[in-house]
Amino acid sequence: MAVPVPIRCRTSLSLVVVLAALQIQSLAQETPAPPRKIAVVGAGIGGSAVAHFLQQQFGPQVQIDVYEKGSVGGRLATVTVNSQQYECGSSSIHSLNLHMQDFVKLLGLKHRREITGKSAIFNGEQLILEETDWYLLNLFRLWWHYGISLLRLQMWVEEVMEKFMRIYKYQAYGYAFSTVDELLRSLGGENFISMMQRSVSESLLELGVTQRFIDDVIAALLRTGYGQPVSIPAFAGAISLAAAQGNRWAVEGGNTLVCSELLKQTKANVIQAQVTEIELHSTEGKTLYQVKHQANDEHASDFYDMVIIATPLHQEKGNITFRNFDPAVGEGPGSYHHIVSSVIHGYLNASYFGFPDPKLFPFASILATDNPGLFFNSLDNICPVNVSAGFRRKQPQEAAVWKVLSQQPLDKQQLKTLFRSYYSVQTTEWLAYPQYGSSNTVPPIVLHDNLFYLSSIEWAASSVEMSAVAAKNVALLAYNRWFQHLDKIDQKDLMQKVKTEL
Ligand SMILES: Cc1cc2nc3c(=O)[nH]c(=O)nc-3n(C[C@H](O)[C@H](O)[C@H](O)COP(=O)(O)OP(=O)(O)OC[C@H]3O[C@@H](n4cnc5c(N)ncnc54)[C@H](O)[C@@H]3O)c2cc1C
After folding, report:
1. Nearest ligand 1 atom, CA 405
2. What angle do CA 408, 124, 239 make, to 5 degrees?
3. Under 8 Å CB-to-CB from 351, ≥6 apart: which residues?
4. Which one, of 417, 353, 393, 365, lies nearest residue 91 by Cα?
5. What per-residue confidence (pLDDT) applies to 307?
6. Interior CA angle at 252 toward 247 and 257, to 5°?
7. 119-171 pLDDT, tens per residue?
8. What are phi and psi of 461, to 5 degrees?
9. Which of 85, 159, 329, 391 would suit a FRET pair with 234, their CA atoms being 20 to 30 Å apart?
């Protein structure tokens, strides 16, 4: 039986219903619908990872188009020698690179079996430091030559890494940063900011690391890592030195698989075209970005609610014109460092390194010191991307596949210096990393309301994981800005906040 409601009560009830309806309506007005279409420019690890993270944030209904002018993977790439593929771009990933570790797990990929090999440092005349099979002997040699410099270096790098690892926690809680400076400040305070302005050598000397250790060891590691000298900023240097120190791994089948599989899993539309122009259209309070692109002389364009630039905006690299933006959006500052990777199948000339009998040459890697007369940065006996159970490294007197990194393509004479003879040489020229020191400003992440620049992070440090970290940051930033979650952007004292949120 229906219970009669008194008139007064009925009026206030309907008032409550109306108010609630109004509130829901205003909430619906306040909460915008998710973006309909997002464009990502570049399908390297940055672009592939951002497509994945954007979908995680906004949901599967958002259409994500990824434009790629070259090959999926970008600076993760392989060349084929004798029907086997070898990494010719980024070859190794650090064990603490947690986004990359997650991707591999998520995608069902595997770590490649590691084939160990010893390293040595060459100064142009002789090997000045040689690794042995004995860990304690290696430590003793380092201590004998350089005192406790190695220990000081290790402590410095570990401290930087420990602070850097905070980013994973912040990102797990949905926090994002609108500038690279804010991101670094939240991880390591003003110390990280000053590490962007001071050089590696300055910082290490201050810690008591000897000049000799810097000239012999640090210079060789940075020349291999970034092709650049010890004057690069301390933050980039520490990230590069961390990679040299820790356990490194690679993806079975090739590192580029992470990009192609992420894009597949995200169901992103990969559009094989070069983005030439991005034009801003604002009508009736709505902002749209027109992305103009070109493939095989055919021009086309499409409109997007949001665009992520996941390639360096430098001439020779991005080559994108921005139209109608006020203030203007343009090319990034500074320049990119040129590196040549030569994958050579041949017989090493071990006598150049002081081993007249090639059978006795025990090294898989040679790192060069910062000697201006030396024409290569590093030389590595490399394994294919698929390492079978029975795979073994070639004996030093056998023909093997070597990767040589150098500033310029190797000429015939230089090839003859390094190799007694060779079957093939495959050369890839890279604009590999920022030329640190060519600019003191770090480009912005937010180029316009919903236009973001992922690659600006490279001016702090450039690596596969840095691009993945930047990808997650951009996806969170885009999401937080779109839904006005301003309390999740550029927050101070995040360590404290995250602890209390637990
Ligand atoms: C030789 C070499 C060795 C390296 N070794 C290591 C290593 O061992 N470990 C490590 O962590 N890092 C290493 N790196 C660095 C690492 O490879 C890069 O930091 C990382 O791959 C950058 O990825 P990204 O997606 O940000 O940029 P990219 O890989 O450069 O991707 C950008 C993509 O955008 C595309 N693109 C550019 N312009 C346009 C346009 N207008 N329209 C459409 N598409 C466009 C490009 O073709 C490219 O595919 C190495 C790099 C090189 C070159």
Report:
1. 1
2. 65
3. 358
4. 365
5. 98
6. 110
7. 999 999 999 998 878 777 777 788 888 888 989 999 999 999 999 999 999 99
8. -165, 150
9. 329
Sign, CA dihedral 394-395-399-400, equals: positive
According to DSSP H, which parts of 198-233 are helical?
200-206, 211-213, 219-226
Alpha-carbon span 264 to 287, nearest angstrom:
29
Report CA(393)–ligand 1 centroid distance (Å): 28
434-458 confidence digits (pLDDT tens): 999 888 789 999 999 999 999 999 9
The token pair at 434 is 């920022």
For residues 122, 425, 316, 236, the Cα torsion angle rounded to the nearest 10 degrees is -30
Q: Which atom of ligand 1 is nearest to the CA of 470?
A: 26
What pLDDT sits at residue 30? Answer: 66
Tokens representing residue 1 in the block: 């039986």
d(CA 251, CA 91): 9
CB 383 within 8 A of CB 139: no
In angstroms, the CA 500 to CA 502 distance is 5
d(C-alpha 396, C-alpha 102), whole Å: 37
Ligand 1 atom at shortest distance from the alpha carbon of 46: 25
Closest CA to 205 of 169, 230, 179: 230
Strands (E), 210-325: 248-249, 269-272, 274-283, 286-295, 298-304, 306-309, 321-323
d(CA 259, ligand 1 centre) in Å: 11
> How many angstroms separate the CA atoms of 482 and 38, rounded?
12
For residue 450, which amino acid is it? N
Closest ligand 1 atom number to CA of residue 72: 49
Residues touching ligand 1 (Cβ under 6 Å) are: 41-47, 67-70, 74-76, 89-93, 243, 274-275, 310-311, 317-320, 339, 341, 430, 432, 455, 462-465, 467
Listed in sequence order, the residues at least 6 apart from 121 whose beta carbon sits closer than 8 Å to its beta carbon are 127, 128, 129, 216, 217, 220, 366, 367, 368, 369
Q: What is the CA radius of gyration of the chain?
A: 26
| Structural tokens at position 49 | 């990872």
Helices 234-245/180-197 angle, 10° precision: 90
Helix (H, G, I), strand (E, B) or coil at 285: coil
Residue 188, token pair as written in the block: 């390591």
Residue 240's closest CA among 256, 364, 248?
Answer: 248
Quick: pLDDT tens for 274-289.
999 999 999 888 999 9
Contact 267, 17 (CB under 8 A): no
Q: Which residues contact 250 (CB under 8 A, 6 or more apart)?
A: 87, 91, 92, 93, 111, 112, 385
In this prediction, residue 502 has a pLDDT band, given cuts at 50, 70 and 90, of low
Q: Could you tell me if 485 and 479 are in contact, meaning their C-beta atoms sit under 8 angstroms apart?
A: yes
Query: Distance between CA atoms of 335 and 314, rounded to whole angstroms?
Result: 7
Nearest-angstrom CA–CA distance, 218 and 278: 42
Ligand 1, atom 1, lies closest to the CA of: 89
- Tokens encoding 195: 């590490």
